[in-house]
Each structure stands twice: as structure tokens, then as C-alpha cells.
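Q: We require from you a single protein entry containing the residue sequence and its fold in C-alpha cell form, and nothing else.
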Amino acid sequence: MEQYVIKGGNPLVGEVEIGGAKNAALGILAAAIMTDETVTIENVPNVRDTRVLLQAIEGIGAKVKYIYNNTVQINGGSISDLNVEYEYIRKIRASYYLLGALLGKYKESNVALPGGCNISRPIDQHLKGFKALGAKVNIDHGVVSAKAENLVGGHIYFDVVTVGATINLMMASCMAEGETILENAAKEPHIVDVANFLNAMGANIKGAGTDVIRIKGVNRLHGCTYSIIP
């Protein structure tokens, strides 16, 4: 049986730098493309998942600039492609956050599924929410395509508590017409951090951290400087 043997008696001395929370960072980096202005994000953890997501963001035409190790600037004003390739989704599932971000900003997004054509429970709540906002959702050859002439707020009840769908629907609805209510929403700290980031860009989101989140649509989002929670 493996075990740790710890002998005390020596005082602990020194400093430990706590990086930003990865799960918050993934939602925040995706949401940063929702404005055409420059967004500066501090305390970005330098891990594989965030690096891959930033590559996916660059792949659709956004500008990404590392200021130094843990600070990144993103400008989504140069996005020219609404298609996120499977190459990125294959590496990290969280690339699907670009579905909600692109749909919310451009009213259209096309993102490959992590599992190809097999729709698993974690993605069906995302699609249910997009449809409730007025988007037409099509799945063809393992790619989810969501498109709407206008996104209109609605009352969305999640059948299961899901972090990914909560974040995706917050992004998709923050520039929709009217009010959106997300019920049975996830309550994790990174949900709150993504909501706070969107609010820093000009969104109107209340209730993050509870199981009911209310989003009033705004016309546009703007740039900001934001530090991810540890």
C-alpha cells in the first residue's frame, strides 16, 4: 500500500504564486472575442488547455498577444472565420465555448464536436438553450452549426446542472433581445468569474453563483482589463 510519511518540526518559509483558475480562464478567453475592442486578461494560467484555446481563437482570425507570462491581450475585431476546426476540439473539449461566444456576437457559429457525430448528454443542454434563444441548430458530419437572424431572450431550464452549458448560454444571451433566465444553472466559482468578466465588458448578468441567472441583453460589449480568480 502506497503512503506518504510526513515528519514535522521544520517551519515553512517562502512564497507560492497561485495561478488563475483554468476552468474560469477557458470561459473568459472564449468570451473575450465577443467585442471588437482589445481585452487584457491577467493571471492566465500557462497550461496546455489555455494555449490550445488561444490557438483556436487565432485560427478564426482574432489577434492574440502575450504581454508577459500570464497576461494576454485579445482583439476579436479581425475575426474572419466562424468555423472552429476539429483539430482544436480534439485537444480540448472546452473549445466548444466558442459556440456560444460566436453565436452571441455574430448570430452564427460552426464548431466541431468532441465526439464527432455522437451527441452526449453534456452537449445536448447547450443545443437546447441555443434553440430556446431562437437559433436553428444543425449537426452535419460532426459539426454543430447554430444560426439565427435574431437571438431573443427566453426562459431556459437545464435538465441537469452543467457548467459548460451555463457558460455557453451566458455568452450567447448577453447580446440577445430582452431578458434570458437560466434556471437550474451551475453555481461554481468559475461561473461567477465568467459572469463578472462579461459584466466588465458591459453585459448585464445577475445571479451568477445561484441556480437562477438573469441576463438582460445589451447592444454591444467593450474592451476591459480583467484578472482571473486564483
